[in-house]
Amino acid sequence: MIHKIAIIGNGKVGTFLSKAFADMGLDVSVYARNPKSASQKKLSELGDDSDLCLICIADRNIAELTKCIPAQKGILAHSSGTVPLEDLDIRHPNRGIFYPLMSLQAESEVDIQSIPFCLEASSESILNQLKSWAQSLDLSYYEIDSKKRKQLHLAAVISHNFSNYLYHWAWQVLQKADIDFEILKPLLSQQVKGLSAADPILNQTGPAVRGDLNTIKAHQELLENPELADLYQKLSTLIQQSNEKEL
Amino acid sequence: MIHKIAIIGNGKVGTFLSKAFADMGLDVSVYARNPKSASQKKLSELGDDSDLCLICIADRNIAELTKCIPAQKGILAHSSGTVPLEDLDIRHPNRGIFYPLMSLQAESEVDIQSIPFCLEASSESILNQLKSWAQSLDLSYYEIDSKKRKQLHLAAVISHNFSNYLYHWAWQVLQKADIDFEILKPLLSQQVKGLSAADPILNQTGPAVRGDLNTIKAHQELLENPELADLYQKLSTLIQQSNEKEL
User: Fold this and answer.
1) Separation CA B180–CA B183 (nearest Å)
2) What is the CATH code for B150-246?
3) Which CATH architecture has domain B4-144?
4) Which chain B residues are Cβ-neighbours of A155 within 8 angstroms?
5) Which Pfam family name is an example for this entry (chains A, B) (predicted)?
């Protein structure tokens, strides 16, 4: 079973996972180019004897890094949503992916057991090792290959990063009207609570889906920034089109 | 204190509120042009002696309706996010607004106490009556005048209706890759949990805010629909611009 873990990287993901794994009683060491504390080790000290060496660094540096570190006897995996399995250097016999589908901030209070982990590996036996380990830690996991993971990452960007921008936009509107943004929180919580496997368009409400052109026009007049008025129009048109397809 | 309530309208909002108020032990009657059950009354039977007559019909019909119904001795209020107070006919001496900031579906299991109600009234004394009543029922309420309510409604459309469209878009991406949409739910729940009064742009993550042009390009190649590729670009550009403003 996987017990000795080397985490490469002391950014948001590396910090979060190393803490969570240590709290679960695993033997965790953090390696970084620039250690931030006495408990972190220099990358040059990395050996080859961890059960799992998990890379948590910027996507663009992963392939190169795997060429430079000692060939791992255990599993070498990365935690990225976009880097394909083939980018891990073949010198490491056991390669895998252990991608947490979660936006992890330095201070995020996320329960690791709530995170869906997406697993892939260079062989069935390595995949099974990752799966049994995840199971033993009571983690949620999905088998997702590199091609599907790309689509999943795209879907995460659309639903999470872009909706965060919409929240920012709504924040600006409320700011101008001197209304506390938190007033929207019950509405948005309820929306996410209602998500299931079904197409969310079935729950679409608002002026666009109702074809309420008066409200759409009034809203666009409230938006002084022409780029945002244009985005409002574009989203409203796409909602109307989706609705027409449904009918 | 408000006890006898007439709800006009048997759509989503009227049905939800009438059930919730009845569950709270209030004396509720539902009036509708087309009653759907024996317990609902015809609009022509509406009297003038309710403590609160609450209009829950389509925005565009509210002003006209208030001209046609008997002048109410109690409070006449509507539940709309967009209709101004002045649209309530002046024949009714006590006019108000009681707007639930929530997307209410026919089957929504929403706790009424979680809903922020936005209150406004034609006089300080009517506003105080609505406030004490809301307080006695343990409801959350905010004083929001018609001008602010317009901005609030716009912010709700942006953050809720438009993000629902993004969820639909993400659902389509996952559908094509044969991945269950529910995999995104922990990510999206965590995002909403993290909302506070602060500007959400401070929590912005993803390729656009990182300036990760390779990922943006790869994502746009995955999007076969040119309108959606264009929307992806527009949102990414707006995120990059917001970030530059922050720096």
Assistant:
1) 6
2) 1.10.1040.20
3) 3-Layer(aba) Sandwich (3.40)
4) 170-171, 173-174, 179, 184
5) DUF2520
The mean pLDDT of A86-115, rounded to a whole number, is: 92
Structure tokens at B30: 């539902």
Mean pLDDT, chain A, whole residue set: 95
Q: What is the pLDDT of residue B88?
A: 98
pLDDT computed for residue B246 by the predictor: 56
**Nearest-CA distance from B175 to chain A in Å?**
9
User: Which residues partner with B31 through β-bridges?
Assistant: B8, B41
Q: What confidence tens digit (pLDDT) does each residue in A106-165 have?
A: 566 899 999 999 999 999 999 999 999 999 999 999 999 999 999 999 999 999 999 999
Q: Is A141 on the interface with B (CB under 8 A)?
A: no
Q: What is the mean pLDDT of residues B43-52?
A: 97
Please tell me if residue B199 touches chain A, with a CB cutoff of 8 Å. yes
Residue ranges of A 20-79 with Cβ closer than 8 A to chain B: 59-60
DSSP β-bridge partners for residue A95: A76
Contact B191 A219 (CB under 8 A): no
Q: Which of B142, B150, B172 sits opposite A183 (nearest CB)?
A: B142
List, in sequence order, the alpha helices (H) in chain B. Answer: 12-23, 59-68, 124-136, 146-156, 162-176, 185-193, 207-210, 213-222, 226-246
Domain boundaries, chain A: 4-144, 150-246
